[in-house]
Amino acid sequence: MNKNKQPKKTGSAKRDGHKQRRPYKSKKRVPTAKTNHPKELTEVGGEMRLSRFMSLAGVASRRTCDEIIASGAVTVNGAVIIAPGTKVTTEDTIILNGQRLSLEEKTYIMLNKPVGYICSAADPNNEKTVYDLVRLPNIRLFSAGRLDLNSEGLLILTNDGDYADKLMHPRYGTEKKYRVRTNKGLTPEDIDAIRNGIYDMGEFLKPKSLKKIKEKEYFFIMAEGKKREIRRLILSTGKKVIQLRRVAIGDLTLGSLPLGKWRTISRDEINQSLA
């Protein structure tokens, strides 16, 4: 977009190739953040929606970017923009919180999150975040879905907003699988009630699947990812979760990745996570 013109709010997005920068090389010996990823997630260029540009720049998922734009926090060529559908190009000057955004090479990380770490970038009430475990200089990452402070297991960190949307948005139905231990065993009536779904705080909560592994240990498959959903389902029966571990997203599993460690994921593994 020409700097002398206001951003267009309509029009179709044209696509052409996007030249990627070489990945940043840390002086420390840490794993390289490979960026093998599906073609449909990386073909950018020409005009595109502002919210899409921001998600590709690693700000957040597109839904979250819509909210950020609507709040008036983004300027394009010096003008405050509140319409997420505004069309922009890579030549525009797009500023968020005083920082110019640019499209960057995509990074995909699998972390085996321990208990005691939050997924937010910063929290004044908690010193430890998952970003303390994954330090990649000059790469902005966010979590594609969350695990609460007391939960552990598979967490994906990325700067690809499109990919994150496919993992998180209920319309895609991406399955997340969990092993859950409770303080007391669930009765057959408890299991039936959870399978049928409950209403809690104005929300309808229901697992896609629930199976008993052994006494006080269960396997949940969830497809929506509402806040603390499994804990709320268990609490509705009068029991409590004492361990919640995410073991898979789609067909992607943790494998032998140790607790607290991370690695990059390949193109095939990205596709597995969307299966």
Q: Would you write up a description of this structure?
A:
By secondary structure, the protein is of the alpha+beta class. It has a domain at 175-249: Alpha-L RNA-binding motif (Alpha-Beta Plaits, 2-Layer Sandwich). It is 17% helix and 25% strand. The strands form four sheets. Strands 7, 8, 9, 10, 13, 14, 15, 16 and 17 form a nine-stranded mixed sheet that branches. It has a four-stranded antiparallel sheet with strand order 3-2-5-6, with no helix packed on it. Strands 1-4 form a two-stranded antiparallel sheet. Strand 8 and strand 9 form a beta hairpin. Helix 1 crosses helix 2. It is elongated. The relative contact order is 0.16.
List the helices and strands and how they pair.
Blueprint: E1 48-49, H1 50-56, H2 62-70, E2 74-76, E3 79-80, E4 87-88, E5 94-96, E6 99-100, E7 108-113, E8 142-143, E9 152-158, H3 161-168, E10 176-182, H4 188-196, E11 198-200, E12 203-205, E13 209-214, E14 217-222, H5 229-235, E15 241-249, E16 252-253, E17 262-264, H6 267-273
Parallel strand pairs: 9-15
Antiparallel strand pairs: 1-4, 2-3, 2-5, 5-6, 7-9, 7-17, 8-9, 10-14, 10-15, 11-12, 13-14, 15-16
Helix pairs in contact: 1-2
Short description:
By secondary structure, this protein is an alpha+beta fold.
The CATH class designation of the domain at 175-249 is Alpha Beta
Task: Give the CATH superfamily of the domain at 175-249.
Answer: Alpha-L RNA-binding motif
Principal-axes geometry comes out as elongated
CATH topology of the domain at 175-249: Alpha-Beta Plaits
Can you write the helix and strand succession as a string?
EHHEEEEEEEEHEHEEEEHEEEH
Q: Find the structural class using helix and strand composition.
A: alpha+beta
Report the helical percentage: 10-25%
- Which sheet architecture does the biggest sheet show? 9 strands, mixed
Number of strands: 17
Number of helices: 6
Q: Summarize model confidence as the mean pLDDT.
A: 83
Please tell me the CATH architecture of the domain at 175-249 by its name.
2-Layer Sandwich
Query: Are there runs of 5+ residues with pLDDT below 50, and where?
Result: 9-45
Gap between N and C termini, in Å? 37 Å
Radius of gyration: 20 Å
Strand fraction band? 15-25%
